[in-house]
Amino acid sequence: MTRKIVLVTGASSGIGETTARHLAAAGHHVVLGARRTDRLKQTVADLTAAGQSAEYAQLDVTDLTSVQAFVDDALARHGRVDVLINNAGVMPLARLDALRVDDWNQMIDVNLRGVLHGIAAVLPAMSARKDGHIINVASTAAYRVDSPGVVYCATKMAVRAVSEGLRQESKDIRVTVVSPGFTRTELTHRGGDTQTQEAMRALAESVGIDASSIAEAIGYAVAQPDGVDVSEIVVQATAQG
Ligand SMILES: NC(=O)c1ccc[n+]([C@@H]2O[C@H](COP(=O)([O-])OP(=O)(O)OC[C@H]3O[C@@H](n4cnc5c(N)ncnc54)[C@H](OP(=O)(O)O)[C@@H]3O)[C@@H](O)[C@H]2O)c1
């Protein structure tokens, strides 16, 4: 196996943290980014104590300067970024007629702009090397619209659209969309309409799958040979239907 330099956004909890742990255990060097650095520090301490290779940096994906610094630091230290996993996301759910415009803007900023910022930050170096892999975490919400997740669905559909376009433009860079269904994480813990979020949390807890299933799907895409692009993977609970 080739040891890769893998950057993971939103690595302070849930799918991002579990994926970073999974890829580090597989022998890759992982760079964890998020805003909650206390959580990142703990994960990196766990990994290094286990003899694995990891580091972390504070990251806000809504800020292009922050994303560029995250990538540039990794390039300066390691000479390359092999894989960028654009995983950071938020899901403050509410009906459209609740007019939670700040939540709409946050979802656009994190879920869509954040992914575009990641692409902008790594694309020049990957294009110059004619090598690299960008993995965007979308959702089953990228395939169907469900209220009260209309804006969330819109951002995830946009992530699929951007990924498809990037794949068409890129003959050397691999592009993968990984779309989880209900997964037990902290996604419903913040923002949105309280009752809606509680209902969604209960659903995720009852039928949701473990984040390790998503991490393994990402690990599968990473492990393929250079010439093989795993374009889309949807992983959801059997009970989600
Ligand atoms: N859980 C599900 O059922 C499910 C289903 C489909 C898709 N997804 C997608 O999976 C991805 C991971 O979510 P999760 O379920 O693992 O939820 P989570 O546990 O809440 O993790 C979300 C991560 O995103 C980070 N994040 C949020 N805003 C950020 C910002 N401005 N800059 C940098 N990082 C930011 C958070 O870190 P900080 O707060 O520390 O910055 C956290 O590490 C998201 O894209 C989500 O939409 C999840």
Report on this structure.
- The chain has a single domain (5-240), classed as Rossmann fold (3-Layer(aba) Sandwich).
- It starts with a strand and ends in a 6-residue tail after the last strand.
- The protein has a seven-stranded parallel β-sheet with strand order 3-2-1-4-5-6-7, with helices on both faces.
- β2 (29-34), α2 and β3 form a beta-alpha-beta unit.
- It is built from seven helices and seven strands.
- With 241 residues, it is an alpha/beta fold.
Radius of gyration: 17 Å
Number of helices: 7
Order of helices and strands: EHEHEHEHEHEHHE
CATH first level: Alpha Beta
Question: What's the arrangement of strands in the largest beta sheet?
Answer: 3-2-1-4-5-6-7
- In CATH, what is the homologous superfamily? NAD(P)-binding Rossmann-like Domain
Average the pLDDT over all residues and give the rounded result.
97
Count the strands? 7
Provide the structure class: alpha/beta
Largest sheet: 7 strands, parallel
- The CATH topology: Rossmann fold
First and last CA, distance: 36 Å
Strand content: 15-25%
Shape: globular
The number of domains is: 1
Examine the secondary-structure arrangement and name the CATH architecture: 3-Layer(aba) Sandwich
Which regions contain 5 or more consecutive residues with pLDDT less than 50? none
Q: Helix content range of the residues, please?
A: 40-55%
Bound molecules: NADP nicotinamide-adenine-dinucleotide phosphate
Organism: Catellatospora citrea
Family: Belongs to the short-chain dehydrogenases/reductases (SDR) family.
Protein name: Oxidoreductase
Pfam families: adh_short
